[in-house]
Amino acid sequence: MKPFTKTTAAVLAISATLTSAIIAMGETKTPEVNLLPSSSIENKKADELEQGVASKQAELWDHLVSASELVDVRGLSAQFDDSGGRRILKLKVPRLNLALGETVRDPRRGIAWVAIPPSSEGWNLKQVRDIQANVKNTGSKPAETTLWVVSSHGWAAVGGSAKLEPNQAATLSCDLRETYPDGTPKIDPGRIKEIRIMIQRIDSASVEVSGLVATGTADEWVRPAGRIDVPDMVEGKPAPSRRVRYQLCSDADNGIYCALYLPADWKPAKRYPVIAEYPGNIFYSATQCWSTGRPEQCAMGYGFSSGTNAIWVSLPFVDRSRGEIAEAGFGSNAGEETTSYAMDVVEDICTNWGGDRNNLFLCGFSRGAIACGYIGLRNDKIARLWKGFVACQHYDGSRWYQSNIEGAVERAPRFDGKAIFQVDNKQEKYQPVVDATDPSVEWTWSRSGLGYHATAMFLDDRPSMKQLRQWFRDLVEAPR
Questions:
Q1: Strand (E) positions, 248-314?
Q2: Residue ranges of the chain with per-residue pLDDT less than 70
């Protein structure tokens, strides 16, 4: 993400007139969407202008002077229109845009987005209930549009989505207090990284967005006890307690990087366990998942090491043919380049940053969990690296892309480590893989209770994480 210019700070005027939906403990709220007739939003604006009230409520992008200050623009053009008394963001998707690494050119896989950054002072949303915006499909095809509020430091995002027919309008609303089914908050409203507007599952589209505001009041947000914040990735050189965008020398001129974290107690002369982690596949659904497919979203390794006494590296899936990270799939050549890159990064960490070759661990979520076997056991050389695996919500053999149960059974005997810890996976599904693994390997099957496709369970003190952290400490101390 490139730096952006900060101008004037937005002042949030919070409306107390919006009736808020309540999430019952143990339920996931469906994001609120109010579908409107095509002329409703325009008529409402005209009425407000006549009454002289349209400018009374500050909007969350008021600090941006022009669209050049928008960030992370992907697959679309964005332009502000301030001529009608209220700001309108006009978005156009000119052609099919796919996730990096996606090989199937299907409009149903199309995705484009733009992000609104906060001002230099940030958005003070700790007592706000919702963020909402009006959207209108001004194109000739149905368009699925999602409003996202994205948190930082390992928190996720909340969204509101609607599929709009041509000339149809809607009000999208994001509940800042939305939780996972077990009651765990999805975001920290005091740490909002961006507000993102996304257009999906279409090859071309035209959408207008207006009225981006904070609405509704809520009690002061309270941080859950025991919650760990994941360091955000920054530019710069590796240092204790920092997580940096790190490139091998051979990748200095391309877009391939990992995220490298050195623990707070890191010293040059000391050796540290290394946790390598793979992210999930790119997948955005307001009701199902927020997954970017990029290494900086990883959180598992930091969570089960508690950020101490271990080096943590978040690995990408690699597309060497394009010189970029594969957000979808296993990377070019069916994952062969991803495998080579992982071995090179581990060697670099052990040579230059104090990695302990006898204490190397591999973990991953979803696609990353499948990669523990599909990439981590791809050949004898990489398989010999690992002392333990931690896989969350999937494993090799899930019949996804090139991974299938037959291949997983063939790869399983290559595991030369001591133990494998499974989170939210069912043993019976992977029993053929277990049977093909050396019988001396210890398997642990744990249920987190989160009830959602996410990694938030690794960042608190629930029983499954206490079990995993103890497992990790014991395995580090065990001889190889």
A1: 258-261, 272-278, 283-285, 289-291, 311-314
A2: 1-56
Instruction: Extract the tokens encoding 301.
Output: 């390794």
Instruction: Examine residue 11 and state whether it is found in any structural domain, yes or no.
Output: no
40 CB burial (10 A radius; 0-12, 13-18, 19+): middle
Query: 162 - beta bridge partners?
Result: 145
Instruction: Give whole-number Cα distances, 284 to 175, 291, 310, 333, 458, in Å.
Output: 17, 6, 31, 25, 20
Q: How far apart are CA 353 and CA 345, in angstroms?
A: 11
- The three-point CA angle 86-127-306 to 5° equals 120
N- to C-terminal Cα separation, the chain? 40
Query: What is the predicted pLDDT for the residue at 57?
Result: 78
How many Cα atoms are found within 13 Å in the side-chain-facing hemisphere of 297? Answer: 26
* 455 in the same domain as 337: yes
Tokens found for residue 77: 């053009």
In a domain, 13, yes or no: no
Which CATH number do you get for residue 74? 2.60.120.260
pTM exceeding 0.85: yes
Q: 228-266 pLDDT, tens per residue? A: 999 999 999 999 999 999 999 999 999 999 999 999 999
Q: What is the pLDDT of residue 30?
A: 45
- CA distance to 32, 196, 206, 475, per residue, from 60 (Å): 19, 12, 22, 48
Residue 393 near residue 365 (C-beta atoms within 8 A) = yes
According to DSSP, the β-strands at 88-93 and 169-175 are unpaired
- Give the pLDDT score at 24: 30
